[in-house]
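Re: weekly structure request thread

Next one in the queue (375 aa):
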Amino acid sequence: MAAIFTPGLTVTEHHIVQKTRQLPLEGEVMVSVGDMVKSDDVVAKTSLPGKVFPVNVANQLGIDPGRLSTYMRKKVGDSVTKDELLAETPGIMGFFKSEARAVVTGTLETISNVTGTVIIQADPIPVEIDAYINGRVVSVIESEGCVVQAMATMVQGIFGLGGETKGLIAMAASSPDEVIGPQHITADHKGKVVIGGAYVTIEGLKKAVEVGAAALVTGGFDYDEIKELLGYEVGVAITGGEDLGTTLIVTEGFGQIGMAPATFELLQKRVGKRASVNGATQIRAGVIRPEIVVTFDDEEVPEELVAPPEPVGITEGDLIRGIRAPWFGRIGTVSGLPVKPIKVGSETTVRVLAVDFGDGKTALLPRSNVERIER
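Done, posted below.
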């Protein structure tokens, strides 16, 4: 059977998920191959070097830099706390003393009698990486991290804001077409992964942030309101570092677009289960999609790293989503793969596929304007 290859979007109830948990620099790995871990377990840790702070002590004391060592109360290698006395002059009969104090807590690294500058390095910043999902450690990256594997329900979105978070799944919408406003978000949603419907208003999202929801999953959102929410423009090429307060996952697109019924039903089935959510999105090389992962803790996890399946491409009968106007966000079934290119509205001649959107009509879409939904 003919097949074509396009980007894929995973929305599936049973999927072998692999997550690489890696430190930004070498450190200590806390787990071994075969270990079963929980999502909050620390699997690797390290320390980032603290910032370096130069302090012109000679200038503060009003002395010649060559005499700095005479007035220092701390030596190289000493630990100092913020505002602790570093150096002072005796003054005149105990009066008119000059002093210099530490600007940060850390370690005194150098004292220069040439420039009169003292350098303090702030204390190292501890960094810990957790497992993110419940599962089995199937590979260890020496001094850096590990790969955790699990059987899980996986739902990928097309855009997200905010980083990793976790919480129990709770419903705010009763149908995939329901618009979510502030009245749908309650105090009970604190710490929860809240599932919306077709669209969330900016007031609804602000309410989710206010009550402390871990994440909000919605079919659509207004892109123009992101700037109002964050206070600055955000590019869609890469996200995930926003300090939003609640991670936002958009499953369908910008605007009022109903969440795909299959996606809504899948998430609804996992109500009350703990989900791991990440809003990081990258649409350039090395695609990263925002995700909701709900592991099956009662199912056996393969003990060895499972190779990812070979891409099978789009074939007749597959579920696809339109990713360009006028079919953006629409979900349909591939009913044909014409071999001969045709001329489309842009006056270009391209390869197309025939799609049944369930309204009794078949549309011809450029193959580059769709993505496959993996089920």
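The chain has five helices and 31 strands. The mean pLDDT is 88.
Next request, please.
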